[in-house]
Design brief:
It is a single chain. It is built from twelve helices and 18 strands. It has 396 residues and is of the alpha/beta class. The strands form five sheets. Strands 5-4-1-6-10-7-11 form a seven-stranded mixed β-sheet, sandwiched between helices. Strands 15-12-18-16-17 form a five-stranded mixed β-sheet. α8 packs parallel to α10. The mean pLDDT is 95. The structure holds cytidine-5'-triphosphate and ligand LQXTBERG. The site of cytidine-5'-triphosphate has 23 residues, from α3. Keywords: Isoprene biosynthesis, Lyase, Metal-binding, Multifunctional enzyme, Nucleotidyltransferase, Transferase. Its cofactor is a divalent metal cation.
Amino acid sequence: MKKYTAIILAAGQGKRMLAGRNKQFLMIEDQPLVRHTLSVFDQDEWCEELILVINERERSQMEELLKAYPVTKQVKFVDGGAERQDSVFAGLSVVENKEIPVFIHDGARPFISKELLHELSVTTYEKEAALLAVPVTDTVKQKVGSRLDTLDRSTLWAAQTPQSFSYDLIYEAHESARKCGYYGTDDASLVERLDKEVAIVKGSYDNIKLTTPEDLHKAKSYISNRREGKVEDGPMFRVGQGFDVHQLTEGRPCIIGGIEIPYEKGLLGHSDADVLLHTIADACLGAIGEGDIGKHFPDTDPAFKDADSGKLLQHVWDIVTERGYELGNMDCTVIAQAPKMAPYIEQIRNHIASLLKVEPGQINIKATTTEKLGFTGRKEGIAAQAVVLLQNNQHS
Ligand SMILES: Nc1ccn([C@@H]2O[C@H](COP(=O)(O)OP(=O)(O)OP(=O)(O)O)[C@@H](O)[C@H]2O)c(=O)n1
Ligand SMILES: C[C@](O)(CO)[C@H](O)COP(=O)(O)O
């Protein structure tokens, strides 16, 4: 574990947010902005000390906030100053353990991830000073008088927080800046002033600072999407499993995996009762946290009477792909004493691959009997199981 102290800045006025109050108190979904930020550090076991820099006039409001939305670690309050830099200095003045790095973080950046905190901490132990930053994606112009210059974008990084330093270095940098009346827009710039190197750790474009009302909208939808499992930092993998059973009965076709298999009986159900496709659909819906096919295609709805389960699966697959997921792989088992499945396995595999527009190699279909045991062994019904792995590359 690479322990660190976190100083969270919340003493600003949030003027650009135009909310008429400090933005740290604004609700994003179910909790105030600053609580979202504090939670990340609270839940990081590497964070040893948590300091919250507040506006002295908001102390009781902040105390109330933490009573209503508690965190598990002890939070040390300290009064900030007129400028961000003054607030950081106030935070530095109350740090207890000066042997571990100090992380300075905007309370207004709630989407920092534990993974990035750890990367930053490891780098700070090695290099003494580091910051999160992302390559600039817009072309940046510099206007001096009436002259416009275009900066070389390949050298430009947008600085984020946390910015992290050995205690002695950042204290010295702040003290020196204060003596000269120098004010920078971040803490790394104060260290740069001392001609010391600051390492860049690539941050995330999701680690935005909530500055304007538009940022607040983005933050709200980001959080609600994240809760629904629609977005996440980095490539995201999700697994789902499915299980389904249908009774065998006379006078029905036996459709398994979209292929009609010659047999004296068929599967009973409201739709075409394709036990394997239903199982796969359930596994896919399970993976994205969307319930099951009963929720999407109720068996009380006449629209799905004798429905082609291939179409139902494609509908489910549209939901999956609209969320940005791709199939990693799926593994399925058909549990049937009869009919004999082996001659149809390859055909079923190719059919499912074409329904989902994936490669057959991503799909595995197996079949087993239950050695004449149970309802499947007595040929009263057929069961199927599936496990799917989905991958989301949209947020890498
Ligand atoms: N005197 C200050 C000014 C800013 N901050 C904190 O520094 C972070 C980044 O600053 P910014 O986004 O500019 O916040 P505000 O100063 O609150 O916003 P504005 O400039 O729009 O008033 C915020 O978490 C803010 O609360 C602080 O602790 N003390
Ligand atoms: C520190 C910072 O968040 C890095 O991007 C930024 O410079 C703070 O600027 P602000 O004007 O105080 O929001």
